[in-house]
Amino acid sequence: MRVLIIYNEPLLPKDHPEADSEHEILYVADAIGMILKAAGFEVDAFGVNHRPDALIARLRADPPDVVFNLFEHSTDHAADEEWVAGILQWLGIPFTGSPSQTIAVARSKHLAKGVLQAAGLPTPPFRVIDRLPVAPNALGWPVILKPAGEDSSIGIDQGSVVVDDAALVSRAAHILEHYGPPVLVEGFIRGRELSVSVIENPDLRALPPVEILFIDPDPSFWPILSYGGKWKPDTREYDVTPPKYGADVAEPLATQIADLAKRAFQVLGCRDYARIDFRVSEDGQPWIIEINPNPDISPEAMLSGNLNSGGIRHSDYVVDLTRRAAARGG
Fold first, then answer.
1. What CATH topology corresponds to 126-187?
2. How far is CA 132 from each of CA 109, 175, 203, rounded to the nearest angstrom?
3. Domain layout of the chain by residue ranges
4. What pLDDT, in 10s, does the model give residues 136-188?
5. How far is CA 166 from CA 3, 172, 214, 246, in A?
6. What integer best gives the mean pLDDT of the chain?
7. Which of 3.40.50.300, 3.30.470.20, 3.40.47.10, 2.60.120.620 is the CATH number of 105-122+190-328?
8. pLDDT in the model for residue 24
9. Alpha carbon 132 to chain centroid distance?
10. Handedness of CA 37, 12, 105, 288 (dihedral sign)
11. Mean pLDDT across the stretch 284-294?
């Protein structure tokens, strides 16, 4: 079987403050390639840039049996992640991961939250800011502000949580200037942060959750997983937010979040694998804060840790995922 791994060519210079999350894709592509080659697949890789015609020409000139889709959006074209999936669908080429319509909704955090609300699934109250001036906050305090079209915690740091209207306006202006609209303003849930990976293997299965521990003793330091916490080792944010795989979650909460994660997976039309992030408030109520189709699938990623907690070897899952994608066709 011939597998083509497609990924986004990094555009940011390596000294850019947000280059870590973008350049990691090169490692992921290499790691997946080595796993598939060891399993006997014929593997090639193709980096996608701003030229969709180059991708289409490559696919038409030498059509693979299946594409392992690692493409994440380009730095300055947030929509091209769903466009690449759409090209694969249009050409009838089987590929791993979620279809284009799922990616389009999930990448717009405010749209995904609207879908969750319509389905009766719990997500924190929110509003959207498209431009200045900013109306006063009516959600209660504190709130957290996020670039609605970004992932990987891009644009999230200690200044993201605000407790008054002046700080709200300042943070919204910062996000609009650096990332563009829309800005998601979400009620901040104090409590535990849990992530549940859901896979089709082949039946829908929620893997044991991972908990992001908040261990900084300073009460003024907001308990959030920031960009630094994800991507900047040897920083305070990274050191005080370690993951704990196989989190200690008692019944009935464990069953509840597993059920909510699977329902969210289905409501957004995810396929193959996805990660659903929760906040559990101090009264025990789980809230869905984000759905991430096609999350990082490298051997060191959170999905891999969830797989291990569920008794599944990461390499075995990658091989099985590829075979099932090829089997379902285009």
1. Dna Ligase; domain 1 (3.30.1490)
2. 20, 11, 47
3. 2-96, 105-122+190-328, 126-187
4. 999 999 999 999 988 888 899 999 999 999 999 999 999 999 999 999 999 99
5. 52, 10, 27, 40
6. 93
7. 3.30.470.20
8. 84
9. 28
10. positive
11. 96
